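hi support,

uploading two proteins for the ticket. first:
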Amino acid sequence: MSGPEKPKVIGEEWSDERVRSFLAITPYDASENPDYHVMLKAYHAMRAEDFQRFISFFVAEGRDLNAVNGQGETILDLIAGHRRSEAYAEALVQAGAVTAAAGH
């Protein structure tokens, strides 16, 4: 919420601890892939540079960059369809992510 009581924060620096905290997020629905869910939450919440750091922590934990959602899409499939998401997609590709069509 932003407004007079809680001003909107722009350009806030995220610590490594805060970025890593997304690794502990779990999906509400047990049928959802936890690795896909975590990456989606990070993508929605983080700036590109924070997302890039998150991806390095994610990979170091042995998590699956190519996890799929219920429609069989990887996070790269989703992000590739968004305008202004090039930096996020590039972070994924550099870490080894592929689209579902490219083979998983």
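and the second one:
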Amino acid sequence: MDSLIPFTTSGSLVDCVDRKMLVILRDGRKLQGVLRSYDQFANLVLEDTVERIYNGNAFAENWLGLFLIRGENVVLLGEIDLDREDEIPLKQVDYHVLDPYHKRDAEIKKQREDAKSKILYEQQGFCKEGGEGDGY
């Protein structure tokens, strides 16, 4: 009977090992790589990892290699469909071309979030705790 209960812990990642995965982190970074290992805390080891950034209809990749991700920083983990991966209607450009635009967009988003937090604190009494990127 117990074998019919699905995994609800990090044990559910066993089918994801040796597959190409997308990981979105709390700070907004999007990493792609092959999941090689994990532990009971959902700490992940990715091989051949790239960070992907987007702007408009373009994307760029920065190769990072072997990457260890602390489980508490993972917001989303999903398998990449290798058959449909090349169907993305985006143009790949050099990372250094897209990086300034990506940083500008991130700064604009941070300013907007700071303004929102300030209004919530001053007008609604919400506390400022958790402002270190804990938006999830």
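thanks. also noticed: The first strand starts at residue 20 and ends at 25.
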